[in-house]
Specification:
By secondary structure, the protein is α+β, with helices and mostly antiparallel strands. It is built from six helices and 13 strands. Strands 5, 6, 7, 8, 9, 10, 11, 12 and 13 form a nine-stranded mixed beta sheet that branches. It has a four-stranded antiparallel beta sheet with strand order 2-1-3-4. A hairpin with a 5-residue loop joins strand 9 and strand 10. It is elongated and about 70 Å long. The protein starts with a helix and ends in a 5-residue tail after the last helix.
C-alpha cells in the first residue's frame, strides 16, 4: 500500500497534511526516513513511525492456504468453488485475492493477500521467485531427466522455459515421483515440461513458494504468516 494512503486511513489527516508529514521528514519506515509519498509499505511487515509514534493501523492481510483439487485460484467463479470461498467470512478482508494461480486440478500452497503491489512483485520475472512442486507421473524418469529439465525446455508453440531443478524420488514404468523447482509460472508449465520429456503428470502439488512452505497444513485449511515468513516478504517490498 502507498505510504500516503496508509497514513490517511490511519487518521493522520488529509492527503495534503499527510504529504507535509512525509516531506518534513517526520515519517520513518524500519528506522529509515521516508522520502516519497508513493513508497510501497506493508505495516504488518514493517515498523512505521510518525513523529516517533508507532503506527498500529494494519490493513494488510496474508494467508497461506492449501488448495484442494477442484477449487479455482480466483476471487469469484460462477461454476466452481474458489480459494476465497475457503476463507471464513470473519477472516475475509476487502481486496483479498490469490497471488498467481494453480490449475483447478492442482493442489497446494496459495498465498492470499490484499496487498496488490506486493503480490505483483512476487510474480514479477525480475525477482525469480522459486516454486517447488511434488509431482507424480505415469512412466519412468530416467537418470537423464534432471539434465533435460536443467537446460530449459522448448514447447511446441515456440516458448522456452527457464532451467528447472528436478529431484527424482522414485522411478518405475508405472509411477515415478519427483520434486521440481521452477522460477516462472507459464500456463500449465509443469505439465507441459513433463510431456516434453515423454511422461504425463497424474498428480501435482505445490509445496513451497518463495519464502513460504506448505508444511503439514491440511488440505483446504489456511493460516496467517509466521513472523519468519513476514521477514522473508520484506525483500519484495522494493
Amino acid at each position: 500500500m502507498r505510504l500516503d494512503k496508509l497514513l490517511g486511513q490511519a487518521g493522520f489527516g488529509s492527503r495534503n497534511h499527510v504529504k507535509k508529514l512525509i516531506r518534513s521528514l517526520q515519517v520513518r519506515v524500519d528506522g529509515q526516513l521516508a522520502r516519497s509519498d508513493s513508497l510501497n509499505v506493508a505495516p504488518n511487515l514493517q515498523t512505521i513511525t510518525v513523529s516517533g509514534q508507532k503506527l498500529s493501523h494494519s490493513p494488510d492481510t496474508y494467508y497461506i492456504l492449501n488448495k484442494p483439487s477442484g477449487v479455482v485460484s480466483a476471487v469469484r467463479d460462477t461454476q466452481h468453488q474458489t480459494v476465497i470461498d475457503l476463507i471464513a467470512p470473519s477472516d475475509r478482508k476487502e481486496g483479498l485475492y490469490p497471488v498467481g494461480r494453480l490449475d483447478r486440478d492442482t493442489e497446494g500452497l496459495v498465498l492470499i493477500t490484499n496487498n496488490g503491489p506486493l503480490g505483483f512483485r512476487l510474480l514479477h520475472p525480475k525477482h525469480h521467485v522459486d516454486k517447488t512442486y511434488y509431482v507424480e507421473v505415469n512412466d519412468q524418469l530416467f537418470s537423464d531427466a534432471p539434465a533435460f529439465f536443467d537446460k530449459g525446455i522448448a514447447f511446441l508453440e515456440g516458448r522456452v522455459c527457464k532451467p528447472a531443478k528436478l529431484q527424482i524420488i522414485s522411478s518405475s514404468s508405472e509411477l515415478s515421483r519427483a520434486y521440481i523447482t521452477i522460477s516462472e509460472g507459464k500456463f500449465h508449465q509443469v505439465k507441459k515440461m513433463f510431456l516434453a520429456y515423454g511422461v504425463k503428470v497424474t498428480y501435482l502439488k505445490r509445496i513451497s513458494f518463495g519464502p513460504f512452505a506448505l508444511g503439514d497444513l491440511p488440505v483446504g485449511a489456511y493460516r496467517e504468516l509466521t513472523e519468519q515468513e513476514k521477514e522473508g516478504l520484506k525483500r519484495y517490498l522494493v
